[in-house]
Write a structure and sequence with these properties.
six-stranded mixed β-sheet; alpha/beta; globular; 416 residues; 11 helices; eight-stranded mixed β-sheet
């Protein structure tokens, strides 16, 4: 069924009893041309672009839980392309362009809201750094505006601009940035991929990857063996575990990243805002709750929960710049397991194991990259070579020393 206002009226008159399932619940086949491990945003987008762009439709997406239950439904929904380094800048800008046409392409309301992303700065040195980044963005054709304190005041009047410890001196604004409904992205890609013949198999955990003379021959799962010459992993915080099944050891660590949402209030924040003197970012959802997060928990973990010191740090950052938050109750807290690379940039690559492809190491940036990640990973799988947009993200860079250290903090994934 193609969604439209006429279908909405028609189904409303029928008591909404005629809506079909958004995607099938197929039984696994004995073999596939490609098996994608991970049914999050990246895995589903990859399957969709494999089918649509490359004509490879005998594809299975295996998800150990349910669609939308992993990191794709556990993030703070921010999209942006305000990067400094060329490889990151061009890649994430392509993602922004795909976001801008995604709802029409998928025929699904993913609630793309280009409300802007504002990065505050609090010192002269930070202003210079943001000006440099903004200039790099504009030279690459990406929108960027450097605001003074009056410009910030007009955009976010609720800010504490004259905080004695962290006075706000201005901010770097990307007007085209914003938010997207996270689980709707997964549902939209799942529905579109299923319509092209992709099998989406939920509650199906991969327990092993079989190889013959080094080449991939299939996967063992909790729902049986599936033969395939190509296995593609897009499993976020469990990247190192799945890669280990294929005999690979990766420069990746898994950490917990927490997020929070408050009770709903009237509109007070009409943009996405980040605090420049600490790690804190916040936006307001369509339901009125403030959605916010901050730094990683400082230890390796596969648990989807966090600890109190990280919570305190996030709350302190929010109160320093937006003290009105102190009057709100936090309704929910959750954690996602993120895979941190040693340079803070992702991995989209072929590997030394023939037939095994890897998409991971997204650190904080996985959700906003979803469309471009799927586009480039599908190209990598179909043609067995990197897409030009993701050529800098291959795993070879760690052997060759050409790292993409966007933040300039070195091999310390816990502070990226």
């Amino acid at each position: 069924m193609r969604y439209s206002v006429w279908q909405l009226v028609k189904q409303g008159l029928r008591g909404h009893t005629g809506w079909p399932r958004m995607w099938r619940d197929p039984q696994p086949k004995s073999s596939y041309d490609v098996v994608i491990v991970g049914g999050g945003g990246h895995g589903l987008a990859t399957a969709y672009y494999l089918a649509r762009e490359h004509g490879i439709r005998n594809v299975a997406v295996l998800e150990k839980g349910w669609i939308g239950g992993g990191n794709v439904g556990r993030n703070t929904t921010i999209i942006r392309s305000n990067y400094l380094l060329g490889a990151n800048l061009h890649f994430y800008e392509y993602a922004m362009k795909l976001w801008e046409g995604l709802e029409r392409e998928l025929n699904f309301n993913t609630m793309v809201s280009q409300r802007g992303v504002l990065n505050l700065f609090h010192s002269d040195a930070q202003r210079d750094a943001y000006a440099r980044r903004g200039n790099a963005m504009r030279l690459a054709g990406v929108d960027a505006e450097l605001l003074d304190v009056d410009g910030v005041r007009a955009l976010v009047p609720m800010l504490d601009l004259d905080n004695a410890r962290f006075p706000v001196l201005g901010g770097l604004l990307q007007p085209r940035g914003g938010t997207v409904r996270h689980d709707a992205v997964a549902w939209g890609y799942a529905r579109a991929a299923d319509a092209l013949g992709v099998d989406i198999i939920q509650n199906c955990e991969v327990t092993g990857i079989r190889r013959d003379q080094g080449r991939v021959t299939g996967v063992d799962t909790t729902r049986g063996f599936m033969a395939t010459p190509r296995v593609a992993a897009a499993v976020a915080g469990h990247t190192s575990r799945v890669a280990d099944m294929a005999g690979l050891r990766l420069p990746v660590e898994s950490h917990v990243l927490q997020a929070f949402v408050t009770e709903g209030v009237k509109p007070l924040l009409d943009t996405v805002m980040t605090f420049g003197a600490g790690h804190f970012y916040v936006s307001q959802s369509d339901k009125g709750g403030l959605v916010f997060g901050g730094d990683l928990d400082g230890y390796n973990s596969y648990a989807q929960r966090g600890n109190l010191p990280a919570m305190e740090d996030v709350m302190a950052g929010g109160m320093a710049v937006l003290p009105v938050m102190g009057r709100l109750r936090v309704l929910r807290q959750w954690g996602g397991v993120v895979d941190m690379t040693m340079d803070g940039s992702p991995i989209i690559t072929c590997t030394d194991v023939p037939g095994f492809y890897l998409n991971g190491g997204w650190c904080y940036g996985g959700f906003k990259a979803t469309p471009a990640s799927g586009w480039c990973f599908a190209h990598t799988i179909a043609r067995d070579e990197p897409h030009p947009l993701s050529a800098a993200f291959t795993i070879d860079r760690f052997h060759e020393g050409r790292l993409l250290d966007e933040k300039g903090v070195g091999p310390n994934p816990w502070i990226q």
